[in-house]
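Check my protein:
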Amino acid sequence: MTGYGLASADHQNVKFVVEIKSLNSKFLELNLKLPKAFSDKELLLRNVCSKDIERGKVSVSINIERGEEALKGATINAALLSKYYKQLEEININLGANSSNLLQAVLNFPDVISYVDDEVSENDWMILNNTFTKALASFNLFRETEGAVLKADLELRVKNILAFFSQIEVLEPLRIPLIKARLNQFLEENVGKINVDQNRLEQELIYYIDKLDITEEKIRLRSHCDYFTDTLKSKDANGKKLGFISQEIGREINTMGAKANDAQIQQLVVGMKEELEKIKEQLLNVL
């Protein structure tokens, strides 16, 4: 799920900055960038992130911004630069190429410029680790706040599905008499009332109506919706479980639509499907 956390600390003209960002992902994809001087702490920081974040495409950026007084110098290897420059100059003369940017090109060659490695103390690591902890706490608070909004939205979507369902419960008992009346009218118009075998008609109606019965689907749908709501209240990471429950809700809705044989009920089923799709989209943000 999405999240953002930022923390910084200043110490002896050095600023430590930690920024954590995440996007939706089914698994934890961690991209950690930190200064070379702290490269030995990478595994430790990765383990903390894996334990605390669980899921998402996460980018952790750690920077050290030094003031002028804290900057270390850089060394230019003059002999190597001169050697590279002369070789390029000879090549340019032979090729008749433009030689105006040779110095700039040579400066980018390997080992021409070497930087003094920053030395860090245990105190520097303590400051950085504390800053990282604060950024992680800010990140988690952001996700908790977003999670509360998601929970409210998911609860609303389930309530909307149950509201459509309540309308179906009102319409469903009226469906069978209407079906029976339509069949009788069709037979009277095409066969004649006197030629209709009432016993056979009743048997066929019982068989046909049994195929259209949605009693079991109604019971299971309400049960799944209640289970979904109860699972939302849990403090555990239940994103996958909620996804499975939403699939079961979808199966019952689809079956009700297939058995409906009624325009009004099918319209309500479409409304339920729309709400369920919104639920599935939001579940991508739930751990």
Summary: The beta strands are 3-11, 14-23, 28-33, 56-66, 74-76, 113-115.
